[in-house]
Every structure is written in C-alpha cells, then in structure tokens.
Amino acid sequence: MDNKRGQGLSTSTIILLVLGLIILVVLIYGFYTGWKFLKDSTPDNNVDQVAQACQQACITKSTYDFCSRQRQITVGDQTPILGTCDGFSDSTSSVYKAEYNIVTCSDITCLG
Questions:
Q1: Helix (H), strand (E) at residue 26
Q2: What is the mean pLDDT of residues 74-88?
Q3: What is the pLDDT of residue 30?
Q4: What is the pLDDT at residue 95?
Q5: DSSP code of 2?
Q6: Under DSSP, is residue 75 helix (H, G, I), strand (E, B) or coil?
Q7: Phi and psi (nearest 5°) for 44?
Q8: How far apart, in whole angstroms, are the C-alpha atoms of residue 99 and residue 51?
C-alpha cells in the first residue's frame, strides 16, 4: 500500500477560521457585557436632531417647544450646550446659527 498523506489546510481556510473565531469572541463579549464599548468609541453628535426638532416646533407653531423647552446639543467630546431653539437661532448668537444651522422662526414671538 502506498503511504497517502492527507490534504493540508489551505492558507485561506486558516485565515477564515481565525476571522470567524475573532468575530465569535467579539459577539460573545458584546452580548455578555453590553455594546457600550463600541458606543464609547464613536463621538455623539445630535445637532441635526435638535435642528429638526426646532424646525418642527416652528412649523407646528409650538411656542413652548420653540421658546421654553430646554435642548442639549452634543458635539463629540465637547461640553454639551444647553439652550432653547430661540436661543440657538438668536441673531445675536451667530455662532450657533452659523455652526449648527438652527434657523429663526418668524411665526413665533418669544417673550423675554
């Protein structure tokens, strides 16, 4: 009888097995400890959401939502900015208006 050797594993098969094992470990770790470790690596940015909420408050002519409701703008690791839509869109505060694109509302007049 001839001495037959078994076929060896190809390099691509070994690479796929290692990648599959890494993915399996990450999934187990994520489900076991929670996915917060992935969220912490990406900066938070809610400027578009606040701008849309302010625009919606203007469209629906909701004086309370536009003038009084406190909103928080977060941009990456910067300190969150608290304010109202009126404050963010104020013409004297052109930093917010230009940087965050929160428009003024001509349909609502805020007091104070």
A1: helix 11-33
A2: 84
A3: 87
A4: 55
A5: -
A6: strand
A7: -85, 140
A8: 11
| Cα–Cα distance measured from residue 86 to residue 65, given in angstroms and rounded to the nearest whole number | 9
SS3 110: coil
pLDDT digits (tens, 9 = 90+) for 88-101: 887 555 455 567 77
Q: Tokens 């007091």 correspond to what residue?
A: 111
What is the pTM assigned to this prediction? 0.56
Q: Which residue has the tokens 């900015």?
A: 81
Do residues 87 and 105 touch, judged by C-beta distance below 8 A? Answer: no
State the CB neighbour count (10 A cutoff) for residue 102.
Answer: 27
* CA–CA gap between residue 49 and residue 57 (Å, rounded): 12
Q: Which residue has the tokens 């940015």?
A: 45
d(CA 42, CA 67): 31
Cβ-contact 72, 54 below 8 angstroms: no
Q: What 3-state class would DSSP assign to 71?
A: strand
Per-residue pLDDT tens digits for 43-62: 578 888 888 999 999 999 99
Report the share of the chain in percent with pLDDT over 90. Answer: 26
